[in-house]
Write a structure and sequence with these properties.
Oligomer: single chain
Bound molecules: pyridoxal-5'-phosphate
Radius of gyration: 22 Å
Helix content: 40-55%
Largest sheet: 7 strands, mixed
Strand order of the largest sheet: 3-9-8-7-6-4-5
Strand content: 15-25%
Length: 407
């Protein structure tokens, strides 16, 4: 038997990859042989890590690790089936109770990832007669969900609330499909944006969605654990939690584990259990993941969580103060994500490589994660960084700044 089509298939993929390489957009995996912390080991070298979303340094925290080990001992390594078959284990229910209490919502539902939470929820709520409105810079999971659900999709320029209002006014006038009251309108935004680190004006967005009768979904992936008196997120800080129909986020960032969640009313959660396909048709998260995430919520809510959050903000202020004295473009960031914008993809790769030679790991982020020509180093800070580590970064930032200008 010949392997003609297999060979053709490989040749075709090689051609496609070549096109990706030509645009400086080729990506490959880097094997890390250490825990997630302020230092990581790559290719036998220890690098200072300014790339992690483990904002509070909980991924390697003893309380989370012990919770995971305990869950493995008691419930095993696997979860056996989807939640609706026989996989709805104690740790999942305890996690959901902890999340609802933490977020002060009636109820919560855990998903296997934030991506699955976004896709499952949006597709459960919206159909082809409906309208989904999103900020231009929302995460890929939301864009994919908005497309997959088949609703009319409208995108407003990043944080441009005048344009958002134009769209909502238009949506409000759309004729209903036969037999329906009116098309449902769902507005989706992140509270802190993942690649720019800036914020949405939740209070104004809430006022707009109330005015035009739209539902609001807020993705707090980069805000939970960092904002608000109780670190619930930007919804808490802006006192808008009560008016947001759907709060979602990930358990894989500040929470230190992995998985996603939706918080909201009891009826929302009951509905998602019945209709969210990424929840229904997927094996339940392993018990260790659910238990670790719950332990993450516990640490986050504790006095220790408060002090970790305070330490993180001190680091953010220190780095921003230094950057303000250089000629890096101010990105408007107000979070633990500080993008150093370089523009050209090749240039961003060069600077990232130069930094790696100096022992500092800040990855270049390129299209399609950000728009073409907006490549950047995405610098993130965590509560694990020591004052000395920050000073090392600051020393090298001066070098990169010169490098960046040379391009
Ligand atoms: C990381 C992220 C997600 C996806 O969460 P995972 O748990 O990693 O799948 C969703 N939305 C935003 C804004 C994110 O940054």
């Amino acid at each position: 038997m010949g392997r003609h089509t297999v060979n053709q298939f490989s040749a075709e993929l090689n051609r496609r990859l070549e096109a990706i390489r030509e645009q400086n957009l080729f990506r490959e995996l880097r094997r890390v042989d250490s825990t997630q912390s302020s230092r990581i080991e790559i290719n036998g070298r220890s690098l200072l890590n300014f790339s992690s979303n483990d904002y509070l340094g909980l991924a390697d925290h003893p309380h989370l690790k012990e919770a995971a080990v305990k869950a493995v001992k008691h419930f095993g390594a696997g979860s056996g089936a989807s939640r609706l078959i026989c996989g709805s284990l104690g740790p999942h229910h305890e996690l959901e109770e902890a999340l609802a209490e933490f977020k002060q919502s009636e109820s919560a539902l855990a998903f296997s990832s934030g991506y699955a939470a976004a896709v499952g929820t949006i597709c459960a709520l919206m159909g082809k007669e409906d309208i989904v409105v999103i900020d231009k810079l929302v995460h890929a999971s939301i864009v994919d969900a908005a497309r997959l659900c088949g609703a009319k999709l409208r995108v407003y320029p990043h944080n441009n609330l005048n344009k958002l209002e134009d769209i909502l006014r238009w949506a409000d006038k759309q004729a209903p499909a036969s037999g329906k009251e009116h098309p449902r309108k769902l507005l989706v935004t992140e509270s802190v944006f993942s690649m720019d680190g800036d914020q949405a004006s939740l209070a104004e967005i809430v006022a707009l969605k109330e005015k035009y009768g739209a539902w609001l979904m807020v993705d707090e992936a980069h805000a939970t654990g960092l904002f608000g008196e109780h670190r619930r997120g930007l919804a808490e800080q802006s006192k808008t939690s009560e008016q947001i129909e759907i709060q979602m986020g990930t358990l894989g960032k500040a929470m230190g584990a992995s998985g996603g969640y939706v918080c909201g009313t009891k009826v929302l959660i009951e509905y998602l259990i019945n209709r969210a396909r990424s929840f229904i048709f997927s094996t339940a998260p392993v018990p260790a993941a659910a238990a670790a995430a719950r332990a993450g919520v516990e640490v986050l809510r504790s006095v220790e969580g408060r002090s970790r959050c305070g330490k993180l903000w001190q680091s953010v202020h220190r780095i921003k103060q230094v950057l303000n004295q250089t000629d890096w473009q101010d990105s408007g960031s107000n979070s633990a994500i500080i993008p150093l914008i370089l523009g050209d993809e090749g240039r961003a790769m060069e600077v990232a490589n130069a930094l790696r030679e100096l022992g500092i790991f800040i990855p270049a982020v390129r299209y399609p994660t950000v728009a073409r020509g907006e490549a950047r180093l995405r610098l993130t800070l965590t509560a694990s960084h020591t004052a000395d580590e920050l000073e090392t970064l600051i020393t090298h930032l001066a070098v990169i700044s010169k490098n960046a200008k040379a391009g």
